[in-house]
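This section describes the prediction task in plain terms. A model, or a person checking by hand, is given the sequence of a single protein chain and must write out its three-dimensional structure as a string of tokens. No templates, partner chains or ligands are provided. The sample shown here is typical of the held-out split.
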Amino acid sequence: MLTAARSMCAAVLLVAGLGSAHAQDVGDFDLLIHDTRGGDTISITDTPGYGEFNAGFSPNGMTLVHEVIEGAPPFPAFLALTDVDSGISVPLPGGDGGNDAMYSPNGQYIAFDRLNASDPSIYLLPAVGGTPTLLRPLGLAPAWSNNSRRIAFLDITDGSIRTIDVKTGEETNLGEAGVFGDFPDWSPNGKWIAYQTFGGDLRAIRVNEQGEPLGEPIIVTFGASFDGAPSWSNNSKTIVFNSDRDSGEVDLWTVNIAEVQPPPECGVEDSGNDPAEAYGVPVFLRGSMNDWAANDASMFVNQGSGIYEVEILLPDGGSFFKVASADWVAADFAPVNPVELDVPQVMVPAPGGNPTGFIDVAAPGCYRFVMDASNTAAPILVATEVATTDLIGAPATRLTGAPGSVDADPAYSNNGRYVVYSAGTVSGP
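The expected answer:
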């Protein structure tokens, strides 16, 4: 995620599951605006040989700021301003190498990062252009607070979402509340920050004006699909995002935050035994369902006599996983064959990712994984269903979806009526 590959229409290329882009692919993406009331969609840009991505509306809705990437190596990029009515685009002075640009709500500044120029740092620029001012090195995907005083962003050193005061540089670290991911978006009422987990789910956390967490993040979407690039509506109730949830086609979808269904509670009672007894360090169930995390929620509990247990929230569909230590060195195991519920399977050492475990379940919910580590060189794993539900998160409604088109990077207008997004086609390797 945190590489230069992200710089070229990251949501499009990564959500589509592609590791690289062809020149014609990048140049085939243009900006469209969808009217959420009337249902009409109009094309805003159509520049042969150039791709337009990650657009955001000005506060008055008349101008778009976005990145432009030339569709030929080395794929030079710059920020541009496009008039919504005429479709005329002009380069933004000071926006060379710009990426993920966003107007401040007061209309005075544009925040952006320069990952397209191999500079993963956040800058501020007057809305009419000029000389960019460095705000935060090693940060990406800036998103303004509703009062234009703070910016939420991804800290690439640890994957946490943080906020920063644009005047003082003072920061809050939402990672301390378990918020790790990308593409944060601050709600217009200032009470929520939505974000995309690295595994491709959407979550949101309540915050105060200083960007400090108020509680724990909630699951907004949860499944085998890759959901990303969330953007709040003006009433802070609806989130638009891109997803491949329908047959792998990347389209735009919406969810209502008020319709979020909480997940069943997962957890194994701590027996008080040393979790590091078998391998000298604790071991974890790490996988696509939890961003491969090694934390309290994914740690195996030592029940004694070589038996370790953990309960994990799984989405419906397939999940990849491994049983490993935090450093991937002291322990790194996986079953060779796909895991079937209630069927024990011997795991083998799996350094370097081969093999990787896989489990496919019919319903989302809590599943218990029991590991018999009596033989630490060949532990036995069995998974059982604990509690399932029909839905975790909020039900999603499709917003756009032309066959064969990749629709991504959505952003609401300030009046909540319009959504701008990038659309195009991506060919195979």
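For orientation: The helical segments are 10-15, 23-27.
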